[in-house]
Design a protein that fits this description.
Layout (H helix, E strand, L loop, with lengths): L1 E2 L5 E2 L7 H9 L8 H14 L4 H14 L5 H5 L3 H8 L8 H15 L5 H6 L20 H12 L7 H11 L12 H13 L1
Antiparallel strand pairs: 1-2
Helix pairs in contact: 2-3, 2-6, 2-9, 8-9
Length: 197
């Protein structure tokens, strides 16, 4: 954990970058539902693999423009011309395998019975031990391994257990804000309210 200049305690990974601090305070761990919104997070987590999340965060608007706002039906019809366009787009991470995976994942998402968001949220974990420090936060869990296996079964790519766990953390399937973090209780309340619906 880190005490920032504003006197608030945050998870240590939030650092001092304004982009990271805003993402930590306003987005990370808060529940995200909706097929296109979940598809966006899966895509960005896949692109992040091997890179800093800050790199992806700073390019997120460019990714949204390049990938048609992460509309699943729009990305699903991308063809080789679109792949080449994306490979030439300096505003995003230009990795052919990840770009092709995003297109394949959109096509797979169209075929998920009940929708992508519902499938992913089936793997929401019950609240467990609250992490005291970042050292208490796992890189993967049995739940993320099961989610990754299910996504791969549905035809998704670039969704291993570690990437699946990062997705789960980002969209509220688990709450890994550390115990003293100033947003932990708010995130817990939002996730609990969502589960009651």
């Amino acid at each position: 954990m880190t005490v920032h200049d504003d006197g608030l305690v945050r998870c240590g990974w939030a650092g001092t970058s304004p982009d990271y601090v805003a993402y930590h305070d306003e987005e990370w761990g808060r529940p995200v539902r909706g097929d296109d919104l979940v598809f966006e997070r899966i895509t960005l987590e896949a692109f992040q693999s091997g890179l800093s999340w800050l790199t992806i965060l700073r390019k997120r608007d460019n990714f949204r423009k390049a990938f048609a706002g992460f509309s699943i039906p729009a990305v699903a019809v991308f063809d080789e011309v679109d792949v080449e366009r994306l490979l030439a787009d300096a505003g995003i991470v230009r990795n052919r395998a990840k770009i092709e995976a995003a297109v394949a994942n959109a096509r797979a998402a169209l075929e998920v019975p009940g929708g992508l968001s519902a499938l992913v949220w089936k793997y929401a974990e019950e609240p467990g031990r609250v992490p005291a420090t970042l050292a208490d936060v796992p890189a993967r869990t049995a739940g993320s391994t099961a989610l990754a296996k299910e996504l791969r079964k549905q035809g998704f790519r670039f969704v291993g257990p570690t990437t699946a766990y990062a997705l789960m953390q980002a969209i509220g399937l688990v709450n890994d804000h550390v115990a003293d973090c100033h947003v932990r209780e708010a995130v817990t309340a939002q996730v609990s309210a969502l589960r009651r619906v």
